[in-house]
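Allow me, if you will, to draw on your knowledge of protein folds for a short while. The matter concerns a single protein, recorded as an amino acid sequence and a row of backbone structure tokens. Could you please explain, in whatever detail you think fit, how the structure tokens follow from the sequence? I remain grateful for any guidance, and I place the record below:

…
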Amino acid sequence: MNNTQKRRYQAAVVLVLSVLVVGLISGISAAHLMPPPKFSMTTTTIPFSPLNRGEEEIKYYNPDGLVNVIGVEDVEVPFKWQSAIRLTTEELGPYADWTLTKVNAGYSADNGQFECYATVIIYDKGDATHPGPVIVNDTTYHFDFSGVHTIPLLTPVPLEGYEELWVSVEWEQTEQNVYLALMDEGPAVDGKGDWGFDGNWSELQIYGLDYNWAIGAIVEGEGNAELSILNIQGPVGVNAEVKNIGSVPATNMDWSIVVTGGILKMVDKTATGAVASIAVNATEAINLGMFFGLGKIQITITAQAENAVAVSVTKSAVILGPIVIGIK
């Protein structure tokens, strides 16, 4: 990330006993989390606050792999910079009637700055390279220990009507060349998991930091639908069931069955459909009617709803004329 001073992000991986092993990678420094050298072993864990019932965290990071820590080098302190994730309709869609109430953010107090004040900023949709207008920025937080902190928003954000949100933590770095913000082991989710701002927005992966920020959006609602694809079978055509195993009815469920393969790849059949609603624990029968072919085929069935993430199942089988056998 560049501005008039061409500031550079630096990465670290936390060391037990706060011992830093530093190496430069295109201007970015790194360090690692290791046990003490003799007689005893300390396991460093990242504490989490458990989610309440009716809450879900939308995130890109792997909570079991938060080993990288980021700071900004060669700046006059105090210096404010941001780490952010971009949530699109793909992530927000199932939660359209929910409310963003909290933000998770990972901080390291073991790499030069023992406490930090930060501001949570929620941005509206911008474009593929930077966020839009600020929605709320009235929540500040004091970090004073390492781990993932759950930060309640002073002003919750109802998700209805938003196609996209950027969830950002603005850090106040008060020490030179320190590491503050936790990231996982990567790889970064392109265009979503690794945005940073030090005067300009860019993804950290372009600097070789191919990781995801430990930032999560905690949303609250009545629950979600969850779809499961069951009982895939022949023998005439392909038949299956879609079951709602979630806690609320699934709305506007779309499904597809695609069959390809056979000798000389002559089989290429598709069926699609839509169902207005599936009650909790109810099933909906779907099918692709009779077709002809010979040889090994592949069956892919996909289902999704407005309030349920897409699920997909792929099976192999054999077709002998109109008969489908050996689905597995």
Remarks:
- The radius of gyration is 24 Å.
- Residues 1-6, 14-48 have pLDDT under 50 and may be disordered.
- DSSP finds one helix and 23 strands in the chain.
- Residues 94 and 306 are 6 Å apart (CA to CA).
